[in-house]
Amino acid sequence: MKSAIIATTQLVRCHHSPTKICLESICSSVLDAASLRRLEESVPMLMCNLEKITPPSFFDGMKHLVIHLLYEALTAGLVFYRWMYRFERFLVELKKKVTNKAHVEASICQAYLQQEISTFSSFYFEREIITRRKRPARNDDICEDLYENVVFIFNYSGRGKGVATNRYIVGGKLQIAHTYILMNYPEILPFYHEFRAEFSALPDSEIDVMVDSNFVPWYKYQINSRGIVDPLLVSLSWGPGAYAKVWRSYVINGYTYNTVAYGQGQPTVNNGLCVTTIGYDNSETNFFGVLHEILKFEMPSGGKNLTCVLFRCKWFDPTRGVRKNSKYNMIDVNHSRVYRKNEPFILVQQAAQV
């Protein structure tokens, strides 16, 4: 069955379009005979209404095919068992193998046999030999910095794309990145709860502001005053270096993320991402945003440099800027509603592409 009738909704937005009937009723995994019979009676009226507002040239054979699809579904059963997409794609691949148009069939057979023989032989090659069957996927997460017995914020499988440049990060941006790294290390949580307990009389919003501005120097003072000698905790107190590697594209979690600046003028947009957070009442909130910068920081610890990659994003208001469209089961994001809190960073492991 063809799906060219989808073009119907591209011309006119109809509340009960034939395309909606085909996609939701005919192509479902379970068919209801009674509802299909009712739809079979209403489809001719819908087509007549479309004929009133569209030119005659619009109605070719594919548009009139809608009238017969419901009868076909009632007679032959589930539609997806009769789809021809996979066979048509296979025929296209066979046509590409034709090199001698005087002997089309023999040319296809010869090319197909060569492909079968080479695929079978590749199973006996050495492991280090890369073949079409064993080559990595386009968005494969190649382990860039992976250590044993190291917390997950420094253990990630991902890689930057393109040439990395060095940038000097100073001021509030470096402190915000340092605070976010501390908040994601489990061993820091006792210090974090102790810091909040000292200001428990204040509302949570004011404590959050104090965490952003004062937690890093407070934590460094606690490490020095208590004589803590754990190399990783000491290294975290000093924070990442001011020099960071910057990429414009990064591959992680099976996706490629591009910055907004790099994506301008590109045919595809890969800068949108989503992060799920847990609030004080254990409720989950989805934050939607766009990627502006990819930063890789180094933190020396125990004779080896641990690295941490952060995404700097622009977030949209999760309450007034996000709305769920129940009709299409999609999320509408209002780009004019920007999240006001200065929390732009996330770990690359936490990103999910949208």
UniProtKB/TrEMBL annotation:
Domain DUF4218, residue spans: 26-139
InterPro entries documented for this protein: DUF4216, DUF4218
Pfam family, one: DUF4216
Protein name: DUF4218 domain-containing protein
DUF4216 domain location: 306-354
